[in-house]
Amino acid sequence: MIRFIDVYKEYDNGTKALKGIDLRIDDGEFVFLVGPSGSGKSTIIKLITGEIALTQGKLMVNGYSLNNISPRQVPLMRRTLGIIFQDFRLIDKKTVYENLAFAMRAIGASSRDLKRRIPYVLQLVGLDQKADRYPGQLSGGEQQRVAIARALVNNPNMIIADEPTSALDVSVQAQVINLLKDFQEEKGVSYLFIAHDLSMVRYVSDDVGVMYLGQLVEVCEAGEIYKNPLHPYTKGLLG
Ligand code: ADP
Questions:
Q1: Which residues lie below 8 Å from residue 188, measured CB to CB, with a gap of 6+?
Q2: pLDDT at position 168
Q3: How far does residue 171's CA lie from ligand 1's centre (Å)?
Q4: Which string of DSSP letters, residue by residue, matches 33-63?
Q5: Is this structure's pTM higher than 0.90?
Q6: Distance between terminal CA atoms of the chain?
Q7: Ligand 1 neighbour 9 (Cβ under 6 A)
């Protein structure tokens, strides 16, 4: 569950990156955020993860108020999030299994938990046969699936994906989205999916938010955006 209520972010150098964001993502929802470079998408992610603080407004993340969260609570809040980075950020010197084990140990999971959970998650993403490979021995699509498995391994309430599929070809992108959707249906996990274009929107069912110059200029159901785009930027994207 995420709630942005009239959120503003101004960086130290005076850049007004977010200007009054209202955004709500309920449990089990798949929300897609699209917008050009510099429109404020990464700033939204950094606010959610607690990497930066907001300037004005209210932000709730999975039951934590980020307005007055204590430093001690930040790691607990982060455990409710699974993050898939654009560049995967796998540890090259660790095998697939060890990459997931590292993420689980970081939150204090026991060896017994690891033995039970990691094979299950690797099977979910179709990599159970490749647990002993190193990232460099996998294709781009497979590395992506390891990154997804790592995001899922600690059972988060919400997955945040920062342009997760842009490096992959369209058929692999579609597989990735379907994989995430299966998991969503199984577990009721919610998703915030960031992208710079609309090519993946057709694969998601819930809301689409369009960012432009630090504002959410359009929020609508995924199907609607094709039928009736309102903002000139959205029209251009479909163009
Ligand atoms: P996007 O992810 O959509 O490309 P960002 O959230 O990265 O957009 O950036 C939004 C605006 O904030 C841009 O004008 C960018 O230059 C500015 N910005 C981002 N990070 C910083 C920072 N650390 N300091 C100052 N300005 C920043």
A1: 27, 28
A2: 63
A3: 31
A4: EE--TTSSHHHHHHHHHTSS--SEEEEEETT
A5: no
A6: 33
A7: no
